[in-house]
Design a protein that fits this description.
- The chain is an alpha/beta fold.
- The protein has a single domain (27-329), classed as Aldolase class I (TIM Barrel), CATH 3.20.20.70.
- The protein is 38% helix and 14% strand.
- It is built from eleven helices and ten strands.
- Strands 1, 2, 3, 4, 5, 6, 7, 8, 9 and 10 form a ten-stranded parallel sheet that branches.
- α3 runs parallel beside α4, α4 runs parallel beside α5 and α5 (156-165) crosses α7.
- The longest helix is centred in the middle third of the chain and has 16 residues, at 127-142.
- It is globular and about 55 Å long.
- The structure holds S-adenosylmethionine, 6-(5-methyl-2-OXO-imidazolidin-4-yl)-hexanoic acid (DTB) and iron/sulfur cluster.
- Residues 65, 81, 119, 150, 171, 173, 210, 240, 242, 245, 283-284, 311-314 line the site of 6-(5-methyl-2-OXO-imidazolidin-4-yl)-hexanoic acid (DTB).
- S-adenosylmethionine (SAM) is lined by residues 73, 79-80, 119, 121-122, 150, 152, 172-173, 175, 212, 242, 244-245, 247, 284, 312, 314.
Amino acid sequence: MEWPMLETPTGEAEATGQAGTGQAGFWTLQQAQALHGLPFNDLIHGAHAVHRRHFDPNAIQLSRLLSIKTGGCPEDCGYCSQSARYDTGVKATRLMALEEVVAAARRAKAEGATRFCMGAAWRSPKPRDLARVAAMVEAVKALGLETCATLGMLTGEEAGALRAAGLDYYNHNVDTSPGFYGEIISTRTLEDRLATLANAREAGLKLCCGGIVGLGETLDDRLAMLVLLANLDPAPESVPLNLWNEVAGVPVAARAERPDAIAFARLVAVARIMMPQSVLRLSAGRQYMSDEAQALCFFAGANSLFLGETLLTTRNASEERDAALFARLGLTAMPAGEGVDADA
Ligand code: SAM
Ligand code: DTB
Ligand code: SF4
């Protein structure tokens, strides 16, 4: 059998090494299924070949998260510890003070992060809060860090104000497939999310947009989510692939099922082939993965992660473990600003 069986949607032989236009194309679920169904070695080899053409295969982008406003969220996302609708034990806080955020960003920089992501448990920011977050963005940017925020839905004006303050990335996930979405969230639609993503793009922000696996969705849902992401035009610069981080008391807890390491590496590989120029982040759920499982995902094309023992409210892999893993694999930190195709 020849690798690859598929051409990219633009008709370019991206995966064969002959081309790599980087243009977003139109991927179909059938194409994603065909890629996913390849023998494991063919799939991983193909994905790694694509990866090497666009990125330094040994460099990993390092981000640090901070929950600047935790819990008490009015939305009903069925996986989330921060929704006020579920009894998860997470205490709601007010928006953090500027100085505390800057101190955390300084620590993140000292620990090796190049991007600092500020997350707030909001449906969307109120004008007063937006002004305060804009000041945080400005101060974090002044430390020489890339900036990212995830604050819920944004209008075009709000996105523009954040961009003007120095925001580089906006994180807003599609979360799951169009078909499964309604089983997980009812208080905002997928169309709402796409509108926010369009507003962020329009304002000149880079997109960090991905989703979660392990919510009880099918394999086709996982692939349909990747198709949705790959068909954003252009594809998001950063794509977080979250494994659902267990939270007691939320609706998803009753049906969640994490993919095993091989199944997850296959998804990473499909994502790498369909989004050759996007930085793929092993996001939530890394603490469940062995070193070997993470190594396989890096080989399949994952090249970004969150450092630090907590994400927003849940646990992450420990910094000691990550340092040891980097040493074992000879991985280095991706320099800031290199998150886009090195060949472009
Ligand atoms: N409230 C804002 C929003 O949802 O737009 C921003 C913060 S929200 C926590 C950011 C993303 O984190 C969600 O869209 C979801 O994809 C991810 N997330 C939340 N809880 C998670 C969990 N328990 N496991 C994995 N990912 C999770
Ligand atoms: C994303 O896709 N993953 C990060 C970031 N965007 C904000 C969040 C993961 C959150 C995990 C749940 C928690 O810690 O509360
Ligand atoms: Fe609120 Fe975001 Fe959690 Fe949904 S994912 S409940 S919007 S904090």
